[in-house]
Amino acid sequence: MRRFIFAALLSIAAISLLSSRSFAQSCPAGQDNMLDWMTLDTATSQHLTGPQALPLYSVLPSDGLFWLIKGDHSGEGYPWDLQYYDSTYIYQWITDSTNSYTDPTNYKAFNSKTGMPWTPICIPEGTAGEKLSSITVPNTQTAYTAYGPNCAQGTTQYLGNTVNEVWNYGNLNIDSTTPPGNLGTHPDLQLVYRYGCDDNYDNCTYKEVFDLMQSYGEVRWTKYQLISGSYQQQQQTVFNQLVSGGSPTPYFPCTMP
Q: Per DSSP, which regions of the chain are E strands?
């Protein structure tokens, strides 16, 4: 199950106002609100793109859900990642499947929308290089089902033991691409998602890293595979250009699982 997550520059006052309207809760002094870090602050009027020319739209959190709309058909409201949140955690829930870039009736969803907690909503601010959060998820809790075509329920599979961590990366600049980005240098948190782990939650087969830049949300996604004892990069998508155009309405033609 993969991926993406979200945000863009506003003044401090504007960010505070937007957060009070959109997010489930405020966080105590000295803690960051991950709903803010995982979404684009100017999502109603702007979105991200990058050197791969793939757009990424954020839909600001509301009623326990927030969407990321991505890829070649995103102007039509799909494909997407749909996350669920409650008063305590943010959970990975629904993502596109291989065919959903052209057919939104194909998707994958965890069997429980609270089965895969990614991060607490409130985490300590920390310093560069510091681990801020760690959640282990046993294999029995990782069941997910593939749906489609035509929303048909398919087989259930398991991800294996999973570890979800948040790290304070420090400052990040990923503008040096062709064409160049326009985001500048900003604080970055990394959501590190490892699955297919052994009984000690180690030697995980896959690792995905989501770079979440302050005010911009997800600006980079990188997938690794453990090969001969070390992680080797398999895929990477960069979103380092802020452009005009707010998010379309998400298009999800199936019944929510």
A: 31-33, 46-49, 56-62, 65-70, 80-85, 89-96, 107-110, 117-120, 122-124, 131-137, 143-147, 153-158, 161-172, 186-197, 206-213, 217-227, 230-238, 241-244
